[in-house]
Write a structure and sequence with these properties.
The complex is a heterotrimer of chains A (121), B (331) and C (148).
Chain A lengths: L1 H27 L3 H17 L3 H8 L1 H4 L2 H19 L2 H10 L1 H17 L6
Helix pairs in contact in A: 2-5, 5-6
Chain B lengths: L5 E2 L5 E9 L1 H4 L9 E2 L10 H19 L9 E6 L5 H7 L6 E4 L5 H14 L5 E8 L1 H8 L15 E2 L2 E8 L6 E6 L4 E2 L8 H20 L8 E4 L3 H14 L8 E3 H4 L12 E2 L1 H17 L5 E9 L3 H5 L5 E10 L1
Parallel strand pairs in B: 2-3, 4-5, 4-6, 7-13, 11-12, 11-14
Antiparallel strand pairs in B: 1-9, 2-8, 6-8, 9-15, 10-15, 14-15
Helix pairs in contact in B: 2-3, 6-7
Chain C lengths: L2 H11 L5 H28 L4 H21 L3 H8 L1 H4 L2 H14 L5 H8 L5 H21 L6
Helix pairs in contact in C: 2-3, 3-6, 6-7
Chain lengths: 121, 331, 148
């Protein structure tokens, strides 16, 4: 039972977050970029008020993998940097926390752009 | 009179036409009627933009051949496309060294070119003229929407930009197919700003032009074998019917749209139909011209609609102005 | 018909997106990506990677996979069905970075690939960073006092 929940919990919560976004796309014609921005900012906000960590405890990657989790990482990075380096952390913390994501996206993006050519649909 | 029908008493002739299409258009219901196609969406070129130019070049060449016209005899080319600054036409027609006028009328370019060139032939200023229009799905996606590999869903009202180029050669004589009168469209702003529903943005311009035409000419829709719009799509054509019906014009009998003809709605994933300059150019050249020649169509109205927005105007929240030019063609 | 009425008429008659079907697929595909993340994480932990590092490695792996699928032209086909299911997980961010990079290569490696890479995903970084800095200011002056 426990092992089932371990994989079902991320599925349910991650899927739920996607459904919310899907409803926004279909009903309001919000562009994908706006959806992504709202998710990240919401993630930062939820982490700031301390709501997000309990969600991670329950749903694990269901909360971490969607872009809300990216917001959480930015907020967490800021908090840790301020704890360690003081006011400097306000500026460096967010990007520092998200460095792996940004770095991976840039590096893989560059490599794949070199390797592949655009295709028609 | 402002906004009046322009009668062309010398009736300029369309002596030949040709078109080149992409793969999706080739597998569509009209696929066998087109003069050329390439299974390579880049048409052997490096970029999508050059591919569109290459299509224009080939279509122009085929049209010259089919009409047995020499390039030196062309007194002017009127050409346009959807790319910024109309570069697809410029690069495509560069090798031919013909007098050239670039047009921008968005998807109404074909009708815009036919209107201008037929008036100049009618007034005997020009002798033999070519009109070209093209669009390429990939070049248009990049310019107006997202990168090709970007994952997104299109709403059901979105249309697919047709990959095609078409060229028409007009002259003072030499064929039965003739342009009798033309009506220049007016810019209409319907307040629609949704790029995924261009049919709705363009339908009011089409209704405006059609209503003016029928009011001034004292003709009825049933006088024509076919009233063909450029690229209103499934959504736009229904709106056009509604708008005209409200003004006492019943189009239900003989209205059709190039955007509906070029793809098969049931077998191809094209949502609300085709769009783009190439849409009307390909359908007119490949399908309608053949039917005018074999006399199964004798009297038609072609009305190409264009949505005159830019990526910048869209981002700045402006609505999409539209236009519809009308050409009356007899076979 | 004035503009307001026309807009209403248009949005009323426009064929609606199949919301239920889209939501179902978004749920299934989005959910599957999150479960897969958990599975990957367990695998990395099993290989002896510490928990924190494994969690980061999962994100990096997802970005890699999404980037690769974008490159071979499969991602947009999945996204067409999955919709928000592929957009909202970190895969959507990766796709938003890799697709313009590939697409704009024709305009050169610096001004095309390099400068257009963040044309879609850029706002995510801008607003995410600004939001985290605002949070940082609060946190610096008031500590965790305002959290629930």
């Amino acid at each position: 039972m426990e092992i089932l929940w371990k994989y079902a919990a991320p599925f349910i919560f991650g899927g739920f977050l996607c459904v919310i976004a899907q409803i926004f796309i279909d009903k309001t014609r919000l562009t994908p970029a706006r959806i992504l921005v709202s998710y990240v900012v919401t993630g930062v906000f939820l982490s700031a008020i301390g709501v997000f960590e309990p969600l991670i405890d329950i749903f694990g990657f269901g909360a971490k993998t969607p872009l809300l989790g990216f917001g959480y990482i930015l907020a967490k990075g800021t908090r840790e940097a301020i704890d360690n380096y003081g006011a400097m952390g306000i500026v460096t913390g967010g990007i520092g926390g998200a460095a792996f994501g940004i770095g991976a996206a840039i590096i893989f993006g560059y490599v794949f752009a070199l390797l592949f050519k655009g295709k028609s649909k | 009179m402002n906004g009046g029908i322009i009668h062309l008493y010398n009736e300029p002739r369309i002596i030949s036409s040709a078109c080149v299409v992409g793969n999706e258009e080739h597998i569509g219901p009209l696929g066998d009627l087109f003069d050329g196609y390439s299974s390579d969406p880049r048409f052997g070129m490096k970029t999508w933009e050059s591919a569109e130019s290459e299509m224009q070049r080939r279509a122009f060449l085929y049209a010259l051949k089919k009409g047995s016209v020499k390039c030196e005899d062309i007194s002017a080319v009127f050409a346009g496309d959807l790319q910024n600054q109309c570069v697809a036409s410029t690069y495509g027609l560069l090798p031919y060294n013909a007098p050239y006028i670039g047009l921008y009328g968005a998807c109404s370019t074909l009708a815009e070119g036919l209107v201008l060139s037929s008036m100049l032939i009618d007034s005997k200023k020009l002798c033999t003229v070519a009109v070209s229009a093209s669009s390429h799905f990939c070049a248009a996606e990049r310019q107006f929407r997202f990168p090709l590999e970007y994952g997104s869903q299109r709403p059901p009202t979105a249309q697919r930009t047709v990959t095609a180029a078409g060229t028409f050669i007009l002259s003072q004589s030499g064929a039965d197919i003739r342009i009798c009168d033309v009506l220049i469209g007016r810019i209409c702003d319907s307040g629609i700003s949704d790029i995924s529903n261009m049919g709705a943005a363009m339908a009011p311009a089409a209704a405006d032009t059609l209503c003016r035409y029928f009011a001034q000419s004292q003709k009825r829709p049933s006088d024509f074998d076919l009233i063909l719009t450029g690229d209103l799509g499934y959504e736009g054509i229904k709106i056009l019917k509604d708008l005209c019906f409200a003004k006492g014009l019943d189009l239900s009998g003989n209205l059709n749209d190039c955007g509906l003809l070029i793809y098969s709605a049931s077998e191809q994933d094209v949502h609300a139909g085709g769009s783009g300059c190439g849409c009307s150019a390909a359908v007119m050249s490949g399908y309608i011209m053949k039917r005018l020649k074999d006399k199964t169509l004798k009297n038609i109205l072609l009305m190409c609609t264009g949505a005159m927005m830019s990526p910048t105007s869209l981002l700045q929240g402006q609505s999409i102005p539209s236009i519809a030019h009308l050409v009356h063609i007899r076979g | 018909m004035n503009k307001e009425n026309y807009k209403k008429y248009v949005s009323m008659r426009a064929e609606k997106s199949p919301v239920f079907k889209n939501c179902l697929f978004a749920f299934l595909i989005g959910g599957a990506i999150c479960s897969f993340s958990q599975l990957l994480c367990d695998l990395y932990v099993l290989l002896g990677i510490p928990n924190d590092a494994a969690s980061i490695l999962v994100s990096v792996t997802l970005i890699f996979i999404a980037g690769l699928l974008t490159g071979i032209g499969t991602f947009d086909k999945i996204a067409k069905v999955g919709g928000a299911g592929t957009l909202v997980p970190i895969t959507g961010f990766a796709n938003a970075v890799v697709s313009p990079a590939i697409d704009n290569k024709a305009e050169g490696f610096v001004l095309g690939l390099g400068s257009k890479m963040f044309i879609i995903a850029g706002p995510v970084l801008v607003y995410g960073t600004v939001a985290s800095a605002i949070y940082g200011v609060f946190y610096y002056f008031w500590g965790g006092a305002f959290s629930l």
